[in-house]
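Training component of the fellowship. As part of building independent skills, the fellow (R.M.) carried out the full modelling exercise for a liganded target. The chosen ligand was manganese (II) ion. The inputs are recorded below so that the supervisory panel can assess the work.
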Amino acid sequence: MFAGYSCARSARWTLRALLPLELLPSARSLHRTAPQRHENANEAATAQPACVTFFGHWPAAERATFLADMRVLERFVDEPEEQSLLAEIEPYLKRLRYEFDHWDDAIHGYRETERKHWYPANRAILDRVVAVAFDGAAMPYVHVLDLAEEGVIKPHVDSVRYCGNTIAGISLLSDSVMRLVRTNDEEQTNAEYRQIFSQERHNKYWADILLPRRSLYVMRHTARYKFTHEILPRKESLFRDALIHKTRRISIICRNDP
Ligand code: OGA
Ligand code: MN
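Fellow's submitted model of the complex:
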């Protein structure tokens, strides 16, 4: 059973274009952009929502597109719903070991599974995700990713061969910070990625997104294809100069077909 599953996983989830973590500026050295003042409605549309901080030199039009394509819905599930989801997945997750061995993997310190059939109460929650984030068409398999307290998701773009234009995730158990860094092309190889990153470092721009416990994020189009995404390590989980207390985090992720 495990071998079969692990084949599916390597086909679907490990074909990620990786940007090495050490090439990214550390959280401490980041320049924080000043809060935006807006005099008219147009500028108000691109003002920073509470969960987003922009860094670097963003073209104004792209900021607006990005905000439409990367949304965070706070309190998407309530505490009883979080407990209900955990009650269904914990017994299964507990039988798996966290993977810490391969530093090259996009994710470090994790265990994961995919689930198609859910208890009716949890199915109802997932139906809400499908209604909010997808036009009724999400993949039947839902990805459950358990990231240990010391786990990290390194910068990557989800494989365009196995995942469509939308990724929606519920965060359980912990707040965390997701960083989205503008990249040039989702099809680049790792080597090309590194080169472009170092050559164009001066005009990089990125956003840090606070993902509160029990929120849902919906990442699509520009945010999904033109930006890498990553979950910062516990010690670098800064948001607006505050250290976000990241513990073990479980995400429940829906995707659509390419
Ligand atoms: C992934 C991923 C993000 C999350 O599994 O590809 O980026 O919210 N997960 O756990
Ligand atoms: Mn991903």
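The panel noted the following from the submitted structure. The first strand starts at residue 17 and ends at 18. Residues 85 and 112 are 15 Å apart (CA to CA).
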